[in-house]
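Issue 218. Parser rejects a valid record. Input:
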Amino acid sequence: MLGSFHTLMNLLGAIGTLMHGTGLASILEEIYGGNAVKHILTGKSVQRAIRGHLLLEKCLNGMLVSEIMDQDSEFADLVNECEEIYTTLLEGKQASRSDLSEKKVIVEQKLQERKRGLAERSRTSKLWLTYMKMVRVARMLILADRLGSWSRHLSAVGECLPIFGAAGHFNYLKSAYMYLQNMSNLETRNPEVFRKFQEGFHVIRRTDQCWAGLGADLV
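Output the parser choked on:
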């Protein structure tokens, strides 16, 4: 198996390589010291890198949503309704999950439309939107491990390929590509192992809690 933790480390390093000279380091230095940022951008300081990237992604998303809400009252109403339903669910009260899902789809569609418009008009916007996509891939890798989702894991590794290629991380690009090729035939070649992986046994668990999966190369 391709170690998901080391894949994540390499992805974080690739993000640092591709974002070199964009001002990302200066932004992260608002949170961490200069030496820590160097390790973050090379992917060596994983926990700090994840925290820093997620914080920045949240800020960028917040700016984007706020801008759309100021210009589109319908979008603002949808976001507020989603927040109300989500808060109600967190409090353990009854609320329509299907209604929340429908509204989330509409919100996501409007966000994607706005992102496409920004990317077409501004190279700087396109750069930071690409950064947000790369951070989303990192989140997908973490999510797949934590939930023990085999399909999400393969999808996330597939999303890493163009990032590895663009950053010049060719060893991981080749390894990940061969890994995906082999795993795509796993159901035919070894149905029993495939079934176990589908059940979440490709990760290590020390408890039966939902968010407890860890990559085999991390334990």
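Fixed in the parser; the record now loads. Residues 4-214 form one domain.
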